[in-house]
From TrEMBL:
<dbReference type="InterPro" id="IPR029058">
    <property type="entry name" value="AB_hydrolase_fold"/>
</dbReference>
<feature type="signal peptide">
    <location>
        <begin position="1"/>
        <end position="25"/>
    </location>
</feature>
<keyword id="KW-0732">Signal</keyword>
<dbReference type="InterPro" id="IPR050228">
    <property type="entry name" value="Carboxylesterase_BioH"/>
</dbReference>
<protein>
    <submittedName>
        <fullName>Esterase</fullName>
    </submittedName>
</protein>
Length: 348
């Protein structure tokens, strides 16, 4: 894996919100909110038949009753929570899409209770939409095994600690006092167990439904910036290719790969700026090198086709020790500021 860096060139009914910090500064004095809400989008009707009935309990001590799982269901929808500002400084909202086994909560507040990217970008004058993809957070599960063909996967703390590059392989211990993080880690290690509380099961068979949900969200919101993390990255690339007139920029934080350039008509996305950001210690697991290289191929092909793509290895810009959870790292506010500056320069 070769690492390279290419840095291209008052409203009626508004609610005042205290905001002691922004993506760029800590003295903005707050912002005014026009609307807070949520909705579900996407999904499809599913009808089950021929599934055996069974006895079940609603509550302990009650008489069991017969459950018939056959009938009509709604499956595949994603949940969206939004905050719209009274006077946004940008006409483009930011749609934040989480990674596998996570929810929109990863952008709300850091596990050590600092401002998350939701508030950072609101303070920078941008409306923010947080999503919970199918099977995560407030989006529903599909019935297993009839609607969802694969069982949910549950990650251990050890897997999260090592895969998300908080510490090297073999450095996790059940006793927090015995854990050995990277010496330069930016992740708030003392809050690791707090972070793990927000982790949810991961499903590997929902790609089609999740993509349809995200595409429906882009269609509903209209022109916007899509900011993705990890497994959300491929959905962001696909949504951009499908609707380049609506996705005005794609910011991909350590994406889990990108489309094969041979399958992409780059004339569709040549005018959509991309920003791809990577953290540190990517040599800890071979899978990171594979994802890094596949995304690099897309980046290089887009630039060769006359498109705009900016590649940032954070350690080449003075940010050492960033984990996979960059939006939670101790320098997350500085990375948010870097992203906001890039958006101001490259997105109209």
């Amino acid at each position: 894996m070769k690492r390279r860096s290419l840095l291209a060139g008052a409203v009626p009914g508004a609610l005042a919100v205290s905001a002691p910090g922004t993506a760029l500064a800590d003295d903005d004095g707050g912002f005014r909110v026009r609307e807070v809400g949520g909705f579900h989008v996407g999904g499809e009707a599913v009808t089950l038949s021929g599934v055996p009935t069974r006895d079940a309990y609603v509550a302990e001590g009650q008489t069991p009753f017969r459950v018939d799982p056959n009938g009509d269901f709604q499956s595949g929808q994603i949940y969206v929570n939004y905050v719209r500002l009274a006077r946004p400084r940008s006409p483009l909202p930011v749609l934040m899409w989480h990674g596998g086994g996570l929810t929109g909560a990863c952008f709300e507040t850091t596990p050590d209770r600092r401002q998350g990217w939701q508030q950072r970008f609101l303070s920078a004058g941008r409306d923010v939409y947080l999503t919970d993809a199918l099977g995560a957070g407030r989006a529903s599960w599909g019935r297993y095994p009839e609607a969802s063909k694969a069982e949910p996967l549950f990650r251990t703390k050890k897997e999260l600690w090592e895969l998300f590059r908080i510490g090297p392989p073999g450095s996790y211990a059940t006793d927090p006092r015995k854990r050995r993080p990277y010496a330069d880690t930016q992740f708030p290690v003392a809050a690791f167990d707090e972070f793990v509380k927000q982790v949810v099961p991961r499903f590997r068979t929902y790609d089609r439904s999740t993509q349809a949900g995200y595409d429906a969200l882009v269609a509903r919101v209209g022109p916007s910036t899509v900011l993705t993390h990890s497994a959300g990255g491929p959905f962001g690339f696909a949504a951009t290719i499908a609707a380049p007139g609506r996705v005005r920029a794609h910011v991909a934080i350590e994406p889990s790969g990108a489309p094969d350039p041979a399958t992409v008509d780059f004339s569709r996305v040549r005018r959509v700026p991309h920003l791809i950001v990577w953290g540190d210690h990517l040599d800890a697991d071979p899978s990171w090198g594979q994802l890094y290289d596949s995304t690099r191929r897309f980046h290089d092909a887009l630039r060769a086709a006359g498109g705009h793509s900016t590649w940032i290895d954070l350690r080449d810009h003075g940010h050492r020790g960033n984990s996979h959870m960059i939006m939670m790292d101790r320098d997350s506010h500085r990375v948010a500021g870097m992203i906001d500056s890039w958006l101001k320069e490259h997105v109209r």
